[in-house]
């Protein structure tokens, strides 16, 4: 079993021992300087090997562009106001910066703005110019890049000399990179294998890959499938432990307090402990889905609209009354789920679907889903375990139109009727090798006046630079576009451009880490 050697080497020149922030900044620069995934992973692994037990977590998180504290609530403006003269030489330790960020996250309530600025200014004053730049980008979320997560997990495996699959499994089950890195480096493979599902700690949800058609999905998976409606709402993972019910979104953000009706429904079920996976959305009086914005209004931070009620539809169960079900085949999990939800006849909690449909039946399920106003269906292999965090072929979504979730990289001022409004958006696809998102097109189509106003209000808050043409944005906002396909391009860096992209809606429930990759865009080349 490979583990790091403790105690860590004391970095020369550092008064308190421990790894210096400067070492992490250097590793981050090395990661950014290469496009090769293995070289990125090697740079990260070297930094992790040098970190002590209490430092591995923050070092891993920072190199993936994340903060172990989650959001610390420091905006761009606060940051720029708090920027003092840089220190001449590096002295900040990782431990000191991590402690300051924890203090920052804990400073809330009245008068907290000034206290937070003071705390931040103190840290930044001790940082060199290069360290300041790193901290500003880290706090501003600019270093957050979905693809880096995969590179980081490889690096953790290399540094701890354990199989990458073991690291990945623990990361998906804990939903946390920092904890996983620390477990791998301090306890090795055995500690990673001991990580299991814990009621109260959300796991990364299993995802679906696009199926090109219902027939193709059925052919691919054989007869042992379930075909379920694909409802267009928000993914929810609900954990119950006795009377305590907690709810997380797909990105593992806790939303328990905002969704009391979901909490109530799950608290009323005949069980003690449970982990349920499902989709929730707002329905109108006829049971048809309301506008997607209505559902999302319940998940936004400021404009929660309590007038809109959410209905949950569960399609999986990962744990029930002391029994972990992750590794059981879907057929078993669905039996357990059906028994649990059987009593809920008046307002069904079960995602509609048909198990082992006959030839015409699967098509009828798709027709019924579309007729009811839903997006399509998900075809699932009944023999597959729950693969947390994976987008595999065991779940295939079938929808009539191509859609992609992309990252907004810039926005141009409109002209004519749209002058004064931020209009044409630059669209980026995730780089699967961990680099910055790659631009694949622009669009100003599909935008209502309301949406243009929203863009004009919102995007300045995400700006990283201003130009006469518009704003360059930090990669933070995810937009869903519909498109006819893709074409080869010599103009764009990924060699591919969208055809006839139009905006469907913004996705506040998605992070850039969940955006579609440039490979997903390339996959549309043939079928476009
Ligand atoms: N019956 C269902 N089974 C699984 N997921 C479902 C189902 N109905 C709706 N969904 C939703 O569809 C998503 C699965 O598609 P995918 O994992 O590709 O996410 P996505 O890229 O956001 O898909 P899309 O953009 O089409 O909503 C799930 O995350 C879940 O939120």
UniProtKB/TrEMBL annotation:
EC number(s) given by UniProt: 6.5.1.1
Catalytic activity from the UniProt record: ATP + (deoxyribonucleotide)n-3'-hydroxyl + 5'-phospho-(deoxyribonucleotide)m = (deoxyribonucleotide)n+m + AMP + diphosphate
Example of a GO biological process term: DNA replication
InterPro entries: ATP-dep_DNA_ligase, DNA_ligae_ATP-dep_bac/arc, DNA_ligase_ATP-dep, DNA_ligase_ATP-dep_C, DNA_ligase_ATP-dep_cent, DNA_ligase_ATP-dep_CS, DNA_ligase_ATP-dep_N, DNA_ligase_N_sf
Pfam families: DNA_ligase_A_C (PF04679), DNA_ligase_A_M (PF01068), DNA_ligase_A_N (PF04675)
Top-level lineage group: Bacteria
Molecular function via GO: ATP binding; DNA binding; DNA ligase (ATP) activity; metal ion binding
Keywords: ATP-binding, Cell cycle, Cell division, DNA damage, DNA recombination, DNA repair, DNA replication, Ligase, Magnesium, Metal-binding, Nucleotide-binding
Active site: 230
Residues the entry annotates as binding ATP: 228, 235, 250, 279, 315, 391, 397
Residue ranges occupied by any ATP-dependent DNA ligase family profile domain in the UniProt entry: 313-431
Co-factor requirement: Mg(2+)
HAMAP family per UniProt: DNA_ligase
Biological function: DNA ligase that seals nicks in double-stranded DNA during DNA replication, DNA recombination and DNA repair.
Family under the similarity heading: Belongs to the ATP-dependent DNA ligase family.
Listed PANTHER family: DNA LIGASE 1/3 FAMILY MEMBER, DNA LIGASE-RELATED
Name used for this protein in its record: Probable DNA ligase
Organism, scientific name: Geodermatophilus saharensis
Encoding gene (name): lig
């Amino acid at each position: 079993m490979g583990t790091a050697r403790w105690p860590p080497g004391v970095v020369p020149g550092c008064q308190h021992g421990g790894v210096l922030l400067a070492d992490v900044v250097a590793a981050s620069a090395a990661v950014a300087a290469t496009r090769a995934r293995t070289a990125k992973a090697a740079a990260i692994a070297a930094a992790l090997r040098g970190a002590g037990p209490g430092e591995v977590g923050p070092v891993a998180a920072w190199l993936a562009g994340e903060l172990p504290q989650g959001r610390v609530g420091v905006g761009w403006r606060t940051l720029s106001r708090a920027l003092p003269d840089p220190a001449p030489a590096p002295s900040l330790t990782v431990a000191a910066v991590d402690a300051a960020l924890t203090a920052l996250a804990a400073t809330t309530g009245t008068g907290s703005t000034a206290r937070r600025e003071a705390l931040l200014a103190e840290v930044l004053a001790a940082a060199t110019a290069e360290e300041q730049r790193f901290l500003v980008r880290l706090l501003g979320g600019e270093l957050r890049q979905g693809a880096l997560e995969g590179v980081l997990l490889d690096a953790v495996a290399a540094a701890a000399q354990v199989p990458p699959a073991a690291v990945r499994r623990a990361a998906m089950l804990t939903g946390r990179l920092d904890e996983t890195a620390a477990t791998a480096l301090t306890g090795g493979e055995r500690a990673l294998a001991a990580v299991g599902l814990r009621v109260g700690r959300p796991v990364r949800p299993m995802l679906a890959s696009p199926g090109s058609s219902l027939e193709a999905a059925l052919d691919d998976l054989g007869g042992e499938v379930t075909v379920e409606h694909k409802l267009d709402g928000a993914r929810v993972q609900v954990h119950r432990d006795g009377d305590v019910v907690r709810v997380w979104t797909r990105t593992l953000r806790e939303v328990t307090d905002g969704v009391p009706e979901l909490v109530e429904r799950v608290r009323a079920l005949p069980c003690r402990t449970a982990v349920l996976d499902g989709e929730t959305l707002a329905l109108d009086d006829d049971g048809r889905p309301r506008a997607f914005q209505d559902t999302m209004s319940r998940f936004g931070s400021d404009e929660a609209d309590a007038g809109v009620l959410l209905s949950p539809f569960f399609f999986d169960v990962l744990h029930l009354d002391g029994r972990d079900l992750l590794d059981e085949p879907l057929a078993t999990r669905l039996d357990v789920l059906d028994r649990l939800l059987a009593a809920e006849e008046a307002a069904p909690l079960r995602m509609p679907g048909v198990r082992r449909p006959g030839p015409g039946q699967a098509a009828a399920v798709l027709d019924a889903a579309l007729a009811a106003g839903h997006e399509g269906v998900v075809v699932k292999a009944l023999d597959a375990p729950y693969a947390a965090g994976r987008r595999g072929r065991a779940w295939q979504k079938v929808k009539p139109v191509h859609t992609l979730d992309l990252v907004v990289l810039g926005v141009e001022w409109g002209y004519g009727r749209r002058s004064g409004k931020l209009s044409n958006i630059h669209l980026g696809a995730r780089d699967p090798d961990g680099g910055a998102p790659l631009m694949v097109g622009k669009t100003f189509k599909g935008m209502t006046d309301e949406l243009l106003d929203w863009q004009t209000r919102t995007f300045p808050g995400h700006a990283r630079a201003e130009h006469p043409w518009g704003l360059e944005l930090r990669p933070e906002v995810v937009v869903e576009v519909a498109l006819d396909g893709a074409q080869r391009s010599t103009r764009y860096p990924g060699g591919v451009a969208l055809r006839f992209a139009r905006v469907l809606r913004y996705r506040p429930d998605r992070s850039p880490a969940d955006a579609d990759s440039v490979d997903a865009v390339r996959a549309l080349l043939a079928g476009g």
